[in-house]
Amino acid sequence: MSNNVCKGTSRIAGCRFSVHPMTDDFVNVILSALKEVDTSKVWLETDDVSTCVRGKIAHVFDVTEAIFSHAAKTGHHVAFSGTYSIGCPGDTDGDVYMAENNRKLNTPIAINQYAACDFALYPLGSDSYMDKIMEQIEAAKQRGLTVEGIHYATKLKGEADDIFTTLENAFTATQEHNDHVVMTASISANSPSHQKGEDDE
Ligand SMILES: Cc1ncc(C[n+]2csc(CCO)c2C)c(N)n1
User: Fold this and answer.
1) Where does thiamine bind (predicted)?
2) Residue 200 has pLDDT above 50, yes or no
3) Within 10 Å of residue 165's Cβ, how many Cβ atoms?
4) DSSP element (H, E) containing 131
5) pLDDT grade for 92, boundaries at 50, 70 and 90
6) pLDDT tens, position by position, 34-65
7) Ramachandran assignment for 190, one of left (phi > 0), alpha (psi -120 to 50 degrees), beta (any other)
8) Among the atoms of ligand 1, which is closest to the Cα of residue 49?
9) In angstroms, what is the span from residue 26 Cα to ligand 1's centroid?
């Protein structure tokens, strides 16, 4: 690394995320979600604060969506918070998980699962970063989600599966023209605010 420019050579992607089920039974909800999901195509490490998954983009999104969906299907109010990244040094090419094919192992289970998501895309080192961000906000509108600009993020509301597809598309498309990309996503399901139709918590 020279001049503090972050220029990774590996295309390994990753996400560090936490799920927070709003129930006394949170340990069970988290551990069952982690256990039920097929994680065999990603490197995975869980600790007391978060879980990190690394591998091909398709599998990083497959696993994060599946873990969120398993937790949400319990009906409890669940909050997900994650940082996706690609192109940072330290993520080495040698990882065996990059040899996997792109076939996803988890089928979407959260049908009719409403969710709200605040996401922010950071195409690092790009002079035209605002254009790249705006392109993906426009693309999100094409999926039929409700899309709303808010301070420091964009809010998406709709089917959880459509939200994760939109996030994956935004991340995938941006990294095709930008070495290092970071994207944050905070997602909420089964919020009491949603039932009241307030949709703003
Ligand atoms: C995805 C995800 N991974 C790890 C944690 C941290 N965490 C909090 S409680 C608990 C179970 C008992 O150890 C764990 C692992 C989280 N919240 N979400």
Assistant:
1) 19, 51
2) no
3) 17
4) helix 129-141
5) low
6) 999 999 999 999 999 999 999 999 999 999 99
7) left
8) 6
9) 9
Ligand 1 atom closest to Cα of residue 19: 18
Whether the Cβ atoms of residue 180 and residue 102 lie closer than 8 Å to each other: no
Other CB atoms within 10 Å distance of the CB of residue 175: 20
Which structure tokens are listed for 6?
Answer: 């972050």
End-to-end CA distance of the chain: 41
* Cα 47 to ligand 1 centre (Å): 7
Q: Whose CA is nearest to atom 1 of ligand 1?
A: 18
Q: List the domain boundaries for the chain.
A: 13-89+109-195
Q: Which two tokens stand for residue 87?
A: 């192109």
At 193, list the tokens. 């605010």
**What residues form DSSP beta bridges with 116?**
157, 188
Pocket of ligand 1 (CB under 6 A): 17-20, 27, 30-31, 46, 48-51
